[in-house]
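To whoever is on call:

I kicked off a structure prediction for a single chain this morning and the downstream step that reads the tokens threw a length-mismatch warning. I double-checked the sequence; it's 390 residues and nothing unusual in it as far as I can see. Pasting both halves so you can look.
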Amino acid sequence: MPKLSFIITVAMLSTFGLLASDIYLPAMPEMTHTFGIADWQMSQTISVYLFMLATAQLFYGPLSERFGRKPVLIVGIALYMLGSLGCALTDSYSAFLVCRIVEASGAAAGLVIGRTLIADTCDKRTSAKVYSVVYPLVSLSPALAPAIGGHLVAAFGWRADFIFVAIFGLMTLGMVLFLPETRPKTAPRLTSPFSGFSQVMADPHFRRYALIVCAIYCAWFVYLTQSPFLFARQGLSEEQSGWLYVPLTCGIILANLVTRKLLDRWPYDRIVTVGILFFVAGGLGYAVLAALNVAGIASVIIPMCLVSLANGSSLSLAVSGAISSKHNNAATASGLIGFLQMGSAAWVATGISAEFGVSAKVLGISILVLGLIALSASITWTRRQAPEVI
């Protein structure tokens, strides 16, 4: 296993994306009044961020192959800090969207190169174990970020959320400066940002893992874009709604810890499938509660706690499996899986909110459909090929 300082640094880099997307969730209803926009337009600030986060990841992999992990990462962190400060200072909705794009373009470096650092230094099984340590740390973001953001909003206003993000970026930059360069000497010097993509996409293992990753992540961001307004309709304050993301994080951390132990006992893909079954159970939970006309905060949170178990098990293993498969292009695969993950989440979350609005019913149906898609990918693969034992 790598040193603890390395794991903490990778965890901080991996937190870039979620921290910037989650910290201002409790402030979204207030920000709609500040900018004079509708609820669904405020949801676009997450979607635009995710689209850029997805697209930028396509380029960071090849760039890090050409120029090295560390120099490219430093530039990305600088963009992350600049965009965050811009979000804090702007008074215009359109300018805020532009700053979110800059912020996302920098956050993508942390996600891609953070995963690549693990692939550079670990084999597939060791990578999975590292992810099982990193993901519980990263999973603190969906709980702590809205909670911290809610208190910052109450004390200083919503702009303080983005100043906090910029400070976090500065702290991470200080740790990155002490990292060694991990790019293998035999790494391919790619001449095009899209070099190697066809080889990665030709790998059936990558495609299968990618579909599972996208389904789980889409479900997560549908929840993130819908839940703040569902909580606000219940009369909850920003501080109160911020703490409602804690149970989900507890589920993610619990699943990560169990997954780490199971890696030495169960086949890799069996663990992935079991996590997906919890995903589907969460969707069925929403369906049952809707059929029984059960309403309230608990009816929103409890089924999602089951989905969070898939986040902590199937998601982390599928990401690791996609990057460490037989294509032998770790950095390119890291960027591509990030693009598919974030891009699909942005597209699905935006489309659902714009087409069907915000409601508990919309949330529940979306979760169930996405869970069944992930389960279909897992069952189809199991029938075609025996689970991979590594």
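Update from on-call: the warning came from a stale cache, not from the record. Cleared it. Sanity check on the structure: The chain has one domain: 4-183+193-384.
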